[in-house]
Amino acid sequence: MASLIEFVLFAPRNKGAALVGSFSDGKEMLMSKDENGYFRTEVELEDGIYQYKFRVQTKSPNFAPDQWVDVIDPYATDINEKEKQGVVRIKDGQRIVDTYVWQHDDTPLSDIHELVIYELHVADFTNDDVGSDKKGKYKGVIEKLDYFCELGINAIELMPVNEYPGDYSWGYKVRHFFATESSYGLTEDLKNLIDKCHGRGIRVFMDGIYNHTDEECPLMLIDRNYWYYEHQHYPEDPDNYWGPEFNYNHYDEKLDIKPAWKYIGDVVRFWIEEYHIDGIRFDAVRQLANFEFLDWLAKQAKNSAEPKQFYNIAEHIPDTNTVVKPDGPLDACWHESFHYFMIPHICGESFELNNLKQVLDPQQQGYATATNVINYLATHDRDRLLRELGDRGIFNTTAFEIAKLAAVLLMTAKGIPMLWMGEEFGEYQEKSESVTQPQKITWSLLANKQNQDLWEYYKKLIILRRQTPAIQSDNIKFFHENADAKVLGYVRWHEWGSQIVVVANFSNQHLTKYHIPEFPTIHSWRDWFTNSEVEIGNSGMITNLPSHAAKIFISH
């Protein structure tokens, strides 16, 4: 039985529009325009799958005035990229994305302060370690969920999964905001991945690219200057221009709307309601530069996700407390200064206590709470630590010693820790200079003893972090500072739980019988690595501190 299905296109300044579909034998079906700027038409369709596109008299300045151009529906939830058409599914007389049935919506997930995040790129995360039909796809990530659970990961952050041009990219130039990248798999596959993550207690965050688009985004073809800035938003910063930028300042007085606000608001609500995501990492917030819009969008996201927790994360380079709560629009900011200051310290290039302390305690930078910052040693935009070390001529045993020191600092610093895929076992590939060339991570490294040992070390630290409220808290105090020996000690605590102490030796010298006079004396302590009791005398603690190493002591 056929049902009337409405096709709608919002194009308030365009003169004419038509619908062309597999149901019309390629013939145009003219659409009528209402007073609110919407072109509409209805088609009788049986249940099934159809292809369609719009033909529009464009208002974009790179075409002749009112030239007819073919465009894909800006709201299309599935794309046939080769045919350059949208795909619509009809079931029981209604439009649907797919028939996926969610299984794990009621599974409890970790609170935000308990998170350990793992950033990954779907296309490069899996290779021959999974079946050929799964590598580089959502199904391949599903195959690795047991790996995440064993490591202790309870949140993954997916690099962009919106439909982009071609079959390989990092995805930061989105063409179709409502569709998922077809080379990664079906919409059902992405939902299955998210659902199975939830079933294992893993939150799923997605990368939201709301500053700019691909040059052939449908909105660009329909009416560029209605949606985008006519020129570069920041012409003085050409190195950080990645494509046409949404104009969040444009207000349509006639219709009483801000077009870019409405469109991206619809995008965010769709991904929360349709894909059940748990948070968004907002790309290029400094370039987007509209905190009023971000505040509105973040609130829209939280409202759509209720009663679930939703985490709004800014990528703002350099990082700044102005973008996060209580006064800013978002919940957290990628803590770029952690990477920026930590790398030279652990590589032995500098030892500036003030710089080191402010990234271990971001309250010194004006961040109010631990959940305001996402700490990391590497991301897709920053080289992994072993690459950083190799570039400085540091290899083999010393490199892995430093990697373990860095892991302790990452997991015990104030803030939410994040790993970049492969970092946990010592992946050392240089970050990609081209976002169009595949760069699979090297799972075979886990066959090497040093790499496996590093992985086990990360695993133990992640377990410690997740089980210890003291490390998840807002509390940190530096009680021992020795700039000459390059040693720093700090204590983390929780009001109703145990304390932990970290003493880190950043030097290349083994410090024998090192004296820590100010060591906290209010508890009995054990060495977490050796699980042995330690004595605290009236004059403090005396201990050996290996080079490039940190000791962790836990009260009991």
TrEMBL record:
GO terms for molecular function: 1,4-alpha-glucan branching enzyme activity; cation binding; hydrolase activity, hydrolyzing O-glycosyl compounds. Residues 119-465 form the Glycosyl hydrolase family 13 catalytic domain. The active site is at residues 283, 336. InterPro entries: A-amylase/branching_C, Branching_enzy, GH, GH13_cat_dom, Glyco_hydro_13_N, Glyco_hydro_b, Ig-like_fold, Ig_E-set. Keywords: Hydrolase. GO terms for biological process: glycogen biosynthetic process. It comes from the Bacteria. The keyword Cell membrane does not apply. The keyword Hydrolase applies. Belongs to the glycosyl hydrolase 13 family. This is Alpha-amylase family glycosyl hydrolase.
